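User: quick one, sequence for these tokens?
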């Protein structure tokens, strides 16, 4: 009898713990688990790979591990707070934040820290921290595009009045990012065009947008060739693409080609099966094994099956769950938001991993939630928190509707009406 009571008490304690965890971690549990695994992988891989940077800066690996832990903690804090918000608020605030993002990008181009002929970071006065404004702009632009596609979904057949008001902010934000970071600008533009496709843009408009894109690339190439002072990094971009395509043979000792060759060496040393943490030697010679090339370093320590294929599967699971959420979300905006952010994160991850295995030209894209970094980690967690906020409308539709009804009641009291109420439909529509 005593034993039975003890077991019942233990069972009751576990049930209470699960309820408490469930109360804090709402939304899609699979996404929570994937995020946790990637975060743990980050701590393990960064601590093992950071010794080279610690040696160069005459510091300790524990110091960099502590910094990564702090940024992950901040990111998880942002994610926990964000996922509790009714995602309809994101639609409203994006109208203001899109202007903030544009202003921050302009300030970065003018006053940003110049590193390798690229102004990507804006130093915050009196604090000493630096902010990579493009990370903020990516999340804001995807949110804004989702909002505009929702508000204008009955006008999408009209290119001038329905599509152009969405294209202009995309072009402006991507254009402001481009001088310092071509890969991020191109990736963001592709994701936004993908959202236009998912949002129901007619095919004829998509072909027109593709034509505009080709013209923009031709003009960009012409400016880079005739006036290189306007785009100081054009030579770097063109060189990477030409060498990848085999048009221009890399010179002996070329830094970029050398970096990729060292990544291949690290991957070959890894083999199929894991060797364990701390066994990788590429941290002593591979440039940026803790950030840009962390995927190659993980394969070296954990093998191609567990480390390489395992990471790919985690990001694919994240994409699958995001698609599932977007198709089941009762609001058009929520579905588009989750889909856009999910594609953005997974696309970035695939680019990073493809570079390491020589399937894509060299870029500076970090591996989301894994690479060593500051603002990138925080804004990645923000994006995941927003996806989880959307997932709450699927996992707990009654609770989510209560908060939405409260929002509608407040709107009615303020005289704003029901302009944010949408008919129940999926994230896709008929063309």
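Assistant:
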């Amino acid at each position: 009898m005593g034993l039975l009571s003890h077991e019942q008490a233990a069972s009751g304690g576990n049930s209470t713990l699960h309820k408490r965890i469930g109360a804090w971690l709402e939304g899609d549990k699979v996404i929570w688990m994937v995020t946790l695994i990637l975060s743990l992988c980050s701590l393990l891989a960064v601590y093992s790979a950071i010794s080279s940077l610690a040696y160069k800066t005459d510091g300790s690996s524990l110091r960099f591990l502590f910094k990564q832990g702090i940024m992950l903690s901040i990111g998880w804090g942002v994610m926990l707070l964000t996922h509790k918000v009714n995602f309809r608020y994101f639609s409203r605030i994006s109208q203001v934040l899109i202007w903030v993002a544009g202003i921050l990008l302009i300030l970065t181009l003018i006053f940003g820290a110049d590193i390798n002929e690229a102004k990507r970071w804006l130093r915050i006065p009196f604090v000493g921290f630096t902010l990579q404004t493009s990370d903020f702009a990516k999340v804001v632009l995807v949110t804004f595009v989702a909002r505009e596609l929702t508000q204008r979904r009955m006008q999408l057949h009209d290119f001038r009045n329905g599509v152009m008001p969405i294209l202009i902010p995309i072009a402006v934000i991507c254009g402001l990012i481009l001088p310092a970071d071509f890969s991020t600008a191109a990736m963001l533009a592709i994701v936004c065009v993908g959202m236009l496709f998912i949002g129901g843009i007619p095919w004829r408009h998509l072909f027109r947008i593709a034509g505009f894109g080709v013209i923009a690339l031709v003009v960009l190439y012409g400016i880079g060739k005739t006036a290189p002072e306007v785009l100081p990094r054009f030579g770097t971009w063109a060189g990477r693409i030409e060498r990848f395509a085999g048009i221009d043979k890399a010179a002996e000792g070329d830094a970029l080609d050398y970096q990729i060759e060292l990544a291949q060496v690290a991957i070959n040393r890894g083999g199929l099966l894991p060797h364990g943490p701390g066994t990788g030697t590429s941290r002593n010679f591979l440039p940026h094994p803790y950030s840009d090339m962390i995927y190659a370093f993980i394969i070296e320590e954990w093998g191609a099956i567990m480390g390489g294929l395992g990471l790919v599967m985690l990001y694919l699971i994240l994409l699958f769950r995001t698609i599932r959420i977007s198709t089941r979300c009762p609001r058009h905006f929520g579905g588009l938001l989750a889909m856009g952010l999910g594609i953005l994160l997974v696309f970035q991850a695939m680019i990073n991993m493809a570079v390491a295995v020589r399937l894509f030209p060299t870029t500076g894209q970090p591996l989301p939630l894994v690479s060593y970094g500051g603002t990138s980690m925080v804004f990645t967690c923000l994006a995941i928190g927003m996806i989880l906020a959307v997932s709450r409308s699927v996992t707990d539709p009654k609770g989510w509707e209560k908060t939405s009804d409260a929002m509608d009641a407040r709107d009615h009291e303020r005289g704003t009406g029901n302009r944010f109420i949408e008919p129940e439909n999926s994230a896709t529509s008929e063309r």
